[in-house]
Amino acid sequence: xxPAPFDYVRPGSLGEALxxxxxxxxxxxxxxxxxxxxxxxxxxAAPAVLVDINGxxxxxxxxxxxxxVRIGALARHAQVLRDPDVARVQPxxxxxxxxxxxxxxxNRGTTVGSLVHADAAAEMPMVLRLxxxxxxxxxxxxxxxxxxxxxxxxxLESSLHHDEIAVEAFFPALAGGSGVAFEEIARRHGDYxxxxxxxxxxxxxxxxxxARAGYLSVSDVxxxxxxxxxxxxxxxxAALARAADAALAVLEPETDIHATADYRAHLARVxxxxxxxxxxxxxxxxxxQEQS
Amino acid sequence: xxxxxxxxxxxxxxxEHEVAVPARRLLSDALRHDLGLTGTHVGCEHGVCGACxxxxxxxxxxxxxxxxxxxxxxxxxxxxxxxxxxxxxxPVQQAFRECHGLQCGFCTPGFLTTxxxxxxxxxxxxxxxxxxxxxxxxCRCTGYQNIVKAVCRAAEIAREDRDSA
Lengths: 292, 165
Hints:
The structure holds two protein chains of two kinds.
Chain A (H helix, E strand, L loop, with lengths): L6 E3 L4 H10 L3 E4 L5 H6 L7 E4 L9 E3 L3 E5 L4 H5 L2 H6 L2 H6 L5 H4 L4 H7 L5 H8 L3 E6 L2 E6 H4 E3 L2 E2 L6 E8 L5 E9 L6 E12 L2 E10 L6 E4 L1 H4 L5 H14 L10 H31 L1
Parallel strand pairs in A: 1-3, 2-3
Antiparallel strand pairs in A: 4-5, 5-10, 6-7, 6-10, 8-9, 11-12, 12-13, 13-14
Helix pairs in contact in A: 11-12
Chain B lengths: L4 E8 L2 E8 L4 H8 L18 E4 L2 E4 L5 H4 L3 E3 L13 H8 L9 H14 L5 H7 L11 H20 L1
Parallel strand pairs in B: 1-5
Antiparallel strand pairs in B: 1-2, 3-4, 3-5
């Protein structure tokens, strides 16, 4: 279990990092390395060059304002998780981050790295899609913004070009009259979840006017399903059952050593009901706070 | 292919070392093989078991998921650095001995470093918090009960230390 040999560069500027990537078609960016290093050790990946961006300046920022939360490429999960402004502006970010691996992994792993690793079993790619967030990347042609919907193209595959570096992620702020919730079920807290669900629900006069849910580990790309029509304004048991049916029509749970496809489907059903109910409550609470 | 060798300086338990390593040398292997600090154990080598956990600038991290070349410039603490200055057992080590928090001892270095950092952040954990503190470390002998007790006992010892200081 040792990585295959690779050349190693540790650039001091973004320009140098881009140059190193451009010069080697098989180069790979190393940030926190908490997903990449196991792949290297198991020799599931063997890039010729690793471009270690940990020495780049000005990329470890976490900023929250009325628009949303901006997270730099070198901000560690732990740093984002303990930022009180992030929790205030978009509470779904810390709700999900608390279930990203174990604390020890969160001390090193980066949120942006997790987003572009594009694992459909990971929390943050699903949350980015659910919130209609985006990732900013820099390449030889300059900077561009990739919307979450365009970022995830296949299992562990993002639409980043090999010569681009993801520099910042953007999670939009929680909108007025909206609520969020997140729950996942894993064999052991901190392990990969067998299923996880997040929801964003908007209310007007107590009625649900919009509801979307994101799903992890039950499809091969991070999945988001619009449940507004199925709920038809309410979160009664009948409405929640319709919502779960609507979600399962889209999801593709698969069997692996941790859970059967049927069990994952069952978890998706149960978690949809719990999370939509919790997000609905949160939205009503949020709406009341705005009025007072 | 001949591998490029990187000369790096690693600061471990307050002592500066110079080592020459290929870029692919895991930090866990650099500590064990290049520096002879075999207290850090290597279990799964893909970040699941927690046996290789060390402190990097005070925060617990998996040394098997970090390359030695990336760790240059950081302050590293391994299990060898947890004893008191006079060489006697540190609070977490003492608590593990008192509470029978180990049997075979393979996973112990990872627990000791994780809990040392955990108590620095939360000096008075509840039993639930103690359990959560060690959730990322696997032990196949103890069933965890005595490890959780040891976390609470270590907090007590550290408090006594502070009170008598």
